[in-house]
Design a protein that fits this description.
The chain is mostly helical and 151 residues long. It contains six helices and two strands; from the N terminus they run αααβαβαα. The chain has a domain of 84 residues. It has a two-stranded antiparallel sheet. The longest helix is centred in the middle third of the chain and has 40 residues. The chain is elongated, with a radius of gyration of 37 Å. It is found in: Membrane.
Length: 151
């Protein structure tokens, strides 16, 4: 008994689980009935629950996706399904445009690389020229330092 008390003191969560009130749990056959409100749901309440207040950027999305013809036609509230469908269509359109832009960019890189190869320009040649220029500047600085030290 002492060991279990010590374990409960060291680990209070275990102690709470051991001492929880089980009187409030019911088997499925004896659960209390769920009470349902007898007030009828009005049409306005239903429409408010099933709709979404449209934000300004979502209006542009709805027009671009083709759900509405203009921003002026969009009501204040739109169904969740309409908005989700429009957002998904726009997401796909953006992905397609980005794929096209990537392909065009890759083609431009290949084209400019081939033109540079025809001119004889390469990264290796650029690196060699840069290092040669640095060496020349370093040699000039050394000569200037030697002349200054000789005076």
């Amino acid at each position: 008994m002492i060991k279990t008390i010590r374990a409960g003191v060291r680990n209070p969560i275990r102690n709470v689980i051991r001492n929880r009130n089980i009187s409030q749990t019911f088997p499925r056959s004896e659960k209390p009935p769920v009470t349902v409100s007898s007030e009828p749901v009005t049409k306005q309440d239903t429409s408010l629950r099933l709709t979404h207040v449209v934000k300004p950027y979502q209006k542009y999305v709805l027009v671009w996706a083709g759900a509405y013809k203009s921003i002026a036609e969009i009501p204040e509230r739109v169904g969740h399904g309409v908005l989700d469908t429009a957002l998904n269509k726009v997401r796909v359109k953006i992905a397609i445009y980005l794929m096209i832009a990537t392909a065009v960019g890759a083609g431009a890189a290949v084209y400019s690389g081939k033109k540079a190869a025809q001119r004889g320009d390469s990264l290796a040649r650029r690196g060699e020229e840069y290092h040669r220029k640095l060496r020349e500047e370093g040699a000039k600085e050394k000569e200037a330092m030697a002349v200054k030290a000789a005076q």
